[in-house]
């Protein structure tokens, strides 16, 4: 089972020495599909690997390093554009891990730039970015209005010269979602990095990762997000006894205890993450989540269509109340029927 | 996947999987003289139906793999070879990191290589194919691989994709060449793949030093002009799919390359005229 083997290798790089040729082929394809190939490359760096495998991973490592450089440059571009409007710029997800020098950023693929700004500064931030050359991606009035009314972020903006997207968040879940994270606390507790940038506090960073993985979206690309959580927990909990109580208190601030608990349990099961004992016992639906996270074969194809469909339905159920969901799906269906491309489901 | 072919082309290995037997059988014939490879591949390509039942009902081949573009149109099953070729191109264009990719053709003699670049339709594939009968080894048609470490050009002798009237022109000269199936109604008209000559496949892993960069244009009276290093540099950044992602390595490799080679734009009315100009230039 390639995705399971991938998880094993990430947690225990020494296991790489036992793999045969076919297993390697499957693991590398699964790692590419899950956007974990750069992470895997960094984890296995220095091991005596078969020549072909070493070559593929060497390329992945170079790609990840270049991706990291470009992501940090993009953060700097946003900082310059937002100077005087939003200071410091709070980075989220992959760019935050890289900028803060966290283990979770080692080899991680980084897509869009995600930043968090106070809601009352949102329109000024948008104007400043447009002024600096960013442009709207979604030309459709329904999509645009939907974002502005219900989403936790501005409609995505792209910088055409650098071909990079920015997601400007004012909170970390859609306003229609059942959980209500406290964006003001996220911002108040953010940790400055110097150079006009900041990241969420350690416990908030874990809560955000857990919310992103289990409270929003259909878990596609979820293996990478759970790996982030493993790395963050190991790094933050090491030598800090106050970390676990703080994490639990912050999870409560954001109404996110359930998703945080699930993240801890699944990270423990899959990556042997050291967590307090109460989270070492599997929860009722954990096996089902695990099945979804590992639904990838040795050709990089998604498997288990029924499980995936169930999680897709679940993602919409979590995201909005039923009547609103029905209306949204109806409008989207009509847009698609009239020859418009279907909305892309992105892993990021 | 049900049907699989592993093949090595120059320094790159591919694993091509298909849910239909047809495309793999055609590929086995096309790649009959290439080394088989069942090791860990550099890239995987998948030829799959859009929906499970489309394997049988109105079969259409979706091109997938390690690297994909979101809304690529499927191809009819009898163009499975084309789908596989496009899939392999896509893996290279989006996934190749060891070499700087130049959208170009290359030929070699005595360890020295000529790189022919230019927009699609400028005639470089046809010219590269025809130079094979004029004392040149074909190194690459679609992608030239420039090694940032050594500055050498590595072969990537994929079958040459020839279109429409070029198919007959080349077939007339290269008698006895090995060809893929003729596909008449592709999105780009008729397409047929020409397997490079035996010497090209035998030397598929032998790099060469680039000495001449040509920007050929077919169908014009014979003419030539020098091209500045700056212009060549800019045109090649546009002709490279991985220049940006290679970062500084790509910049260093390309500046070195344009500095090392003689750079000439040539207009030519036919292959003989082009061959004569090349003999003088290199």
What attributes characterize this protein structure?
heterodimer; A: 348 residues; alpha/beta; seven-stranded mixed β-sheet; 15 helices; 7 strands; globular; B: alpha+beta; 2 domains; 9 helices; 16 strands; P-loop_NTPase (chain B); HPr kinase/phosphorylase (chain B); HprK-rel_A (chain B); Sigma_54_int_dom_ATP-bd_1 (chain B); NTP_transf_5 (chain A)
Explain briefly what this protein structure is.
The complex is a heterodimer of chains A (348) and B (282). In chain A, 54% of the residues lie in helices and 7% in strands.
Structure explained in plain terms:
The complex is a heterodimer of chains A (348) and B (282). With 348 residues, chain A is α/β, with parallel strands linked by helices. Chain A has one domain. Chain A is built from 15 helices and 7 strands. A 7-stranded mixed beta sheet of chain A has the order 3-4-5-2-1-7-6. The longest helix of chain A is centred in the N-terminal third of the chain and has 32 residues, at 51-82. Chain A is globular and about 55 Å long. The two termini of chain A are 24 Å apart. Chain B has 282 residues and is an alpha+beta fold. Chain B folds into 2 domains: 3-95, no CATH class; 100-281, no CATH class. Helix content of chain B is 30%, strand content 32%. Chain B has 9 helices and 16 strands. Chain B has helices spanning 21-30, 80-95, 124-131, 165-173, 198-202, 229-238, 243-246, 248-260, 271-281, and strands at 3-9, 12-18, 43-49, 60-65, 75-76, 100-109, 112-117, 137-140, 143-146, 153-154, 160-163, 183-186, 189-194, 209-218, 223-226, 262-268. In chain B, the strands form 3 sheets. In chain B, strands 6, 7, 8, 9, 10, 14, 15 and 16 form an 8-stranded mixed beta sheet that branches. In chain B, strands 1-2-3-4-5 form a 5-stranded mixed beta sheet, with helices on one face. Chain B has a 3-stranded antiparallel beta sheet with strand order 11-13-12. In chain B, helix 6 crosses helix 8. The model of chain B has no long low-confidence stretch (mean pLDDT 94).
């Amino acid at each position: 089972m390639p995705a399971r083997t991938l998880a094993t290798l990430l947690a225990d790089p020494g296991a790489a020495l036992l793999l045969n040729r076919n297993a390697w082929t499957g693991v590398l394809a699964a790692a590419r599909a899950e956007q974990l190939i750069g992470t895997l490359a960094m984890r296995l760096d220095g091991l005596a690997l078969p020549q072909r495998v070493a070559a593929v991973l060497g390329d992945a490592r170079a790609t990840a390093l270049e991706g990291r450089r470009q992501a940090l440059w993009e953060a700097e571009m946003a900082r310059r554009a937002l100077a005087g409007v939003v200071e410091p710029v709070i980075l989220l997800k992959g760019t935050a891990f890289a900028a803060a020098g966290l283990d979770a950023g080692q080899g991680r693929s980084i897509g869009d730039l995600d930043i968090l700004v106070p809601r009352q500064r949102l329109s000024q931030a948008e104007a400043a970015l447009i002024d600096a050359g960013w442009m709207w991606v979604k030309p459709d009035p329904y999509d645009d209005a939907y974002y502005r009314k219900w989403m936790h972020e501005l409609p995505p903006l792209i910088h055409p010269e650098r071909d990079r997207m920015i997601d400007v968040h004012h909170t970390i879940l859609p306003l229609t979602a059942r959980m209500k994270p406290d964006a003001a606390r996220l911002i108040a507790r953010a940790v400055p990095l110097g150079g006009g940038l900041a990241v969420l506090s350690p416990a908030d960073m874990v809560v955000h990762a857990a919310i992103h993985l289990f409270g929003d979206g259909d878990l596609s690309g979820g293996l990478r997000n759970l790996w982030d959580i493993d790395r963050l927990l190991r790094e933050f909990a090491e030598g800090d006894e106050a970390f676990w109580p703080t994490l639990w208190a912050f999870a409560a601030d954001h109404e996110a205890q359930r998703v945080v608990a699930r993240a801890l349990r699944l990270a423990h099961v899959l990556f042997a993450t050291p967590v307090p004992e109460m989270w070492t016992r599997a929860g009722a639906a954990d096996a089902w989540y695990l099945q979804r996270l590992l639904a990838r074969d040795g050709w990089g194809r998604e498997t288990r269509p029924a499980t995936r469909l169930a999680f897709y339905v679940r993602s919409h159920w979590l995201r909005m109340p039923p009547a609103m969901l029905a209306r949204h799906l109806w409008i989207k269906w009509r847009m698609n029927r009239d020859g418009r491309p279907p909305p892309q489901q992105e892993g990021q | 996947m049900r049907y699989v072919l592993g093949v090595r082309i120059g320094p790159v290995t591919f694993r091509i999987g298909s849910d239909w037997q047809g495309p793999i059988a055609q590929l086995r014939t096309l790649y009959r003289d290439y080394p088989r490879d069942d090791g860990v591949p550099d890239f995987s390509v998948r030829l799959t139906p859009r929906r499970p039942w489309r394997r049988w009902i109105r079969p259409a081949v979706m091109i997938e793999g390690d690297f994909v573009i979101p809304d690529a149109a499927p191809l009819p099953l009898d163009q499975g070879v084309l789908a596989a070729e496009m899939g392999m191109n896509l893996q290279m264009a989006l996934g190749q990191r060891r070499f700087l990719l130049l959208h170009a053709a290359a030929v070699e003699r005595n360890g020295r290589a000529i790189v022919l670049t230019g927009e699609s339709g400028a005639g470089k594939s046809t010219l590269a194919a025809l130079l094979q009968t004029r004392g040149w080894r074909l190194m690459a048609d679609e992608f030239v691989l420039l090694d940032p470490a050594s500055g050498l050009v590595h072969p990537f002798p994929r079958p040459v994709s020839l279109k429409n009237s070029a198919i007959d022109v080349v077939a007339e000269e290269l008698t006895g060449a090995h060809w893929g199936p003729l596909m008449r109604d592709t999105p780009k008209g008729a397409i047929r793949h020409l397997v490079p000559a035996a010497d090209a496949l035998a030397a598929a892993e032998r790099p060469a030093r680039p000495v001449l960069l040509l920007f050929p244009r077919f169908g014009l009276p014979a003419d030539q002009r020098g091209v500045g290093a700056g212009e060549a540099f800019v045109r090649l950044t546009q002709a490279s799919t991985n220049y940006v992602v290679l970062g500084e390595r790509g910049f260093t490799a390309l500046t070195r390359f344009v500095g090392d080679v003689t750079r000439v734009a040539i207009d030519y009315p036919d292959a003989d005229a082009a061959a004569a100009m090349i003999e003088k230039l290199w």
